[in-house]
Amino acid sequence: MLRSARLVVELEKIRGDQQPSRSKPTWQRFLESTGGAALITVLVGGIAGGLITSHLETRQKDRELAVQKEQAAEQRKSAAHKELLTARLTAVQGAIDLLGRAIAAGEDLIVITGPEWRLQEARAEVDAKVTRRKKEELREGWNTADAAWRSQRHSAGLLLAVYSSKARNVAEAWRQTEETVAGFLDCARDYYVEHATGTGDPSAGCREAHTAAIDALVALPKAVGVTEIVGPEF
Description:
By secondary structure, the chain is mainly alpha-helical. It folds into two domains: 2-67; 83-228, no CATH class. Helices cover 79% and strands 0% of the residues. The protein contains six helices and no strands. The chain starts with a helix and ends in an 11-residue tail after the last helix. 21% of the residues are buried.
């Protein structure tokens, strides 16, 4: 472009030297000439074209950067949502496991009150030792589960509420479940104390309290919204 401009200037200079002097200054005559107009057109067009190209490239880069930022934000949001869902599911699983172990321990405590667990003198000594050892294992299992229940039940309910979007509803659902299960455990313990010598009837002991505890355990996932864990309800 500059080479063409210089050529046009040289041509106009030659033409100027060959024509008689005019009253207009040289630069004006040059601009009014065909070559001058062409030169100005080339220069202005080149500058304008460069500016337009630069502007378009800048806008394209800005759009690409905006898209990258939006994608990064969506990825962070998705990762955070997955972490929250995982924490919710872990809290629900922990609460259900705690409840299940407590109820199972209560069932075992009632079972060993039956007459088949009575250590009769007529029973062979080997059988008596096996029965005694098994009863001790079940009683120890009760003690372990009962201790875990008493130490973890409040924190389990708190975790359920913390990782939910409806903390008040979830806290109330856990409170009701906790009271129901605690009622069965208290009944199981009292029944064992009363029938520890083998005078109990496991099929009848704490039947209503046991049924209520099982129903509460089964209903807990729905009560805290675990069926909606992929959505905003929980």
